[in-house]
Amino acid sequence: MNATVIGSQLGDEGKGGVVDLFSEDADVVVRYQGGDNAGHTVVHDGEEYKLRLIPSGVIRGKTGVLGNGCVLNLETLFDEIETLRTRGLNPDVRVSSRAHVVFPYHRVLDRAEETSKTDEDQAVGTTGNGIGPAYEDKAGRRGIRVGELLDETVLRDRLEYTVPKKRRLAEDVFDVDTGIEFDVDHLFETFRAFGDQLQSEGMVVDAGSVLTEMARDGANVLFEGAQGTHIDVDHGNYPFVTSSNPTAGGAITGTGVDPSAVADGQIIGVVKAYLSRVGSGPMPTELSEESASRVREEVGGFGTVTGRPRRIGWLDVPMLRHAARVNGFTGIVLNHVDALGGFEELKVCEAYELDGERVTDVPSTTAAWARCTPEYRTVETWSDRDWSEIRDDGYDALPDAARTYVDYVSTELGVPVYAVGIGPGRDETIVRRHPFDSSED
Ligand code: IMP
């Protein structure tokens, strides 16, 4: 049996904790896109782990696979592995030989392009980790894959073809002084060493074949999306997006499994009970800075990777409708319900007013989305409380108004609620259905 966990908004929905929880009954947890732009916080046995690349389920001792759809900063990967080892874990991480490698020049180019866009007020607010430039090279057929690090002749040939072009781009277009990030010999030595390390640890695999074989042998596979639907390069608010497909289709193309492995499994959308965003782009329900800073104090609203303050908004139901359709959600997890406790007023956006018309879905151009004015419904509030008591007593112990809120979202999307998050810890999520439990179907 398989399940896919996907962010339904703009990333930061708390997918890491959900994956960690649901991976209890999984044998393997697979990331299918993105790189170290993601930030997953997992609390395990009272200890907090912040992961950017390694699939969250690895903390539970599950096999973690980074699929061909990922772009890998190998320094981050080995740092994370080392940190987990230092903390007494024995991470089992496999990497697709088809995954692309993020090189230091990608990070320089990412920041250079963002800086140039800032002058024209077009910056995306990327994480600066070279993700876009790495995917650009992949699509431009000048990227370098993990499997190519294992062959010295191929690696050198590829670097000699690509790096001079990247250096000229940096110097001539972006006016950047280039250094060792663009030095072929230095890159060759550094990445050959990474290749050796990957090989000596037996980490490089043909992920599609391995996963297919595991599934055939009865393994439960959990596909872990990073980022969220509305920053998907195709289905998000382009150009304020990441450069990969966090949506369900990405789990297929980003791993090499038979499409039915994803489509016939559970597809769980993770919904944050309010909205937050770390990058630029429209956000129709955004709160004023004064209100947002008050909310941030309550909910700790800073990006895991960049530490930037999150922009905050009310729950936007048209965004969720779009996500439910694009991904084919079979269920949702509503996270951070505790964070809304104690608000004097609570609103949800049910539809937009766009150029005099009422619309209930997200328009397909970002310019039109930016013109949308939210149509709000004010909902009943619930007070803050000791959420640990509710955790022990389960779903029915939630305040009535909170349950009404959860039920409202579930009804709007026409799918059941698998879990409700009322705190950051693994045991602070009330699970109603488990994606791997077929007895509940
Ligand atoms: P990039 O992925 O670093 O290129 O950034 C592109 C956009 O995606 C920016 O708005 C980032 O803030 C946003 N982004 C990237 N990764 C995440 C994430 O894991 N959570 C939330 N936003 C993200």
TrEMBL record:
The record's keywords, sorted A to Z, are: Cytoplasm, GTP-binding, Ligase, Magnesium, Metal-binding, Nucleotide-binding, Purine biosynthesis
Question: Which intervals of the chain are annotated as region Disordered?
Answer: 114-136
Q: Spell out the Pfam families in the cross-references.
A: Adenylsucc_synt
Q: Does the keyword Cytoplasm apply?
A: yes
Q: How does it assemble?
A: Homodimer.
Q: What is the gene called? A: purA
InterPro entries reported in the protein's UniProt record = Adenylosuccin_syn_GTP-bd, Adenylosuccin_syn_Lys_AS, Adenylosuccinate_synth_dom1, Adenylosuccinate_synth_dom2, Adenylosuccinate_synth_dom3, Adenylosuccinate_synthetase, P-loop_NTPase
Write the protein's name.
Adenylosuccinate synthetase
| Protein's job | Plays an important role in the de novo pathway of purine nucleotide biosynthesis. Catalyzes the first committed step in the biosynthesis of AMP from IMP.
Q: Which reaction does it catalyse?
A: IMP + L-aspartate + GTP = N(6)-(1,2-dicarboxyethyl)-AMP + GDP + phosphate + 2 H(+)
Could you tell me which species this protein originates from? Natronoglomus mannanivorans
Q: Which residues bind IMP?
A: 12-15, 37-40, 127, 141, 227, 242, 308
Q: What's any one GO cellular component for it?
A: cytoplasm
EC number(s)? 6.3.4.4
- Main localization is cytoplasm
Residues that coordinate or bind substrate = 304-310
Q: What HAMAP family does its record include?
A: Adenylosucc_synth
